[in-house]
Amino acid sequence: MNRRGTVAAVPTLTDEEAWRRLAAARSAVLATVAGDGSVDLVPIVFHADAPRLYLAVDDVKPKSTLRLGRLANITRDPRVTVLADRYDDDWAQLWWVRAKGTATIVTATLEAERALDGLAATYSAYAERRPPGDVVRIDVAELRGWSATG
Asked: Closest Cα partner for 140 from 51, 70, 45?
């Protein structure tokens, strides 16, 4: 609400601007549906190639297995949401982009290799050590974004 007690217009982003911000984001949060129906959240790094997002299962960060819960969740229910945002103490700089879509596990294909190339071009850890695990493709069906400044 503004000072006059009315609701101010919400500055939504165009699809083009939302994709630009999403593609430039260094990280995001992936939401999947867990086996009990709850939402499971995990931070991710990703490669954006509109209208798709790609992420990989790596062994760079410590994990006990490459058979991650997010993969089981996607196999059981492929509906996912990715949220990227920017927080700043200057609230005029705030923004977020939410991408809803369907995830598919892609293994040992040219598409997976291209996705890994895109990830390696963005993240030096992946350039130094290519992820050995599966690649997840998210076909984005709905993109929504907001910015404090529009």
From this structure: 51
State yes or no: pLDDT of 138 exceeds 90. yes
SS3 135: strand
For residues 78 and 100, the answer to whether their CB atoms sit within 8 Å is no
Whichever domain contains 31, its CATH number is 2.30.110.10
Residue pLDDT, tens place only, 15-59: 999 999 999 999 999 999 999 999 999 999 999 999 999 999 887
122-138: average pLDDT: 93
Spatial CA neighbour of 44 closest among 22, 75, 13: 22
- Within a domain: 76: yes
d(CA 65, CA 59): 9
Residue 39 lies in domain = 15-53+62-105+136-142
Instruction: Please tell me the total count of domains within the chain.
Output: 1
Cα Rg, the chain, nearest whole Å: 17
The tokens of 20 are what? 């630009």
Contact 80, 105 (CB under 8 A): no
